[in-house]
Task: structure prediction
Amino acid sequence: MPKRNKKSYGIIFTIIIPVILLLFWFFASLFFNNKISFSVIQYSESARDIKSYPSGLLLKDKSIIGEFKANDNNLGIINLGFKNFIERGSGGEDVLLFRIKEKGQKDWKYINTYRSGSLDRQLEYPFGFPSIPDSKDKTYVFEIKSLYGTPNNSINLTDGKPTLSTAYQFSKGEILGSKKILVGFLYKKIETSFTNIDFLLRSLIFLAPLAVYVFVYFLSKLKNKSSRSLSIGMAIILIVLDILLLKEYYVGILIVLSILWIINIHKFKIESSVTFLTTGIMIMVWVILTMFGMLDYQGKLNVWIFTLFIVGAAQLIFEEKYSPKSEVNYKNFFKILIKENG
Result:
């Protein structure tokens, strides 16, 4: 009987719970995405669809011009992913003129203007317009033109052309029109969503419970001393990769990595001085990048400096109140990482 119970618990912890958490991630990602609603299907377009774009900044009277073939009906959004945004200077914000029309038509179907400041912290910007119900298989031409662009307020395209995607808005009545239509919609929704890198990165907030569960489970199985430096080192490396590789801020990644750091603090009795030391190193890197005009990573560094400072402050308050025994402090931190992996 005890053996059977042990086996049952093993199935629960190694199969059933992970599957439940995986299903939670799958369905929550589809229905509660903070950027794309469930009724919208988004397609990534080819880089060749951007026909003309300036090198460097999108200055006054310069344009981004592209054309694409609509994948479906109800075209209503063109998403352009820019490489960087230069914050507005004393000259004020730029104004971007957006317009779109069907190829071969003389008149523009939709024209609107956008402030360049609206792209701040949203490098993949949605240029929306009234949905076109019969857009499928038709070719559309769009233009984004700078009206007042200067070196202080322009969109930055230095690293290359912007990425392009298109989005199609379906009503509840259209989706639920018949079982065949519903199945077709769900298939396209799942296919386009889970093959989109940006969607997957944003969905990590719903993968956080599974990621933390798997990390804690495997950490509990590691008994050798080197698991301490391996676990701490992995958390640090993942934070560094987040700062270096992902320019946009993804709350799911921040939550997962912050929880991993807190688990390490609890599991290996890490002192608050280690968290403050890590924060201090990030501040020094921030200063050095500022001195050399390397501003691309500052936003991410700001987020992590603030997050680790809050975690360190909470640790310090806990230590003052309960005086827990610590095994890893700022004096032996680097020694542990190097020696135990050596």
Summary: The radius of gyration is 25 Å.
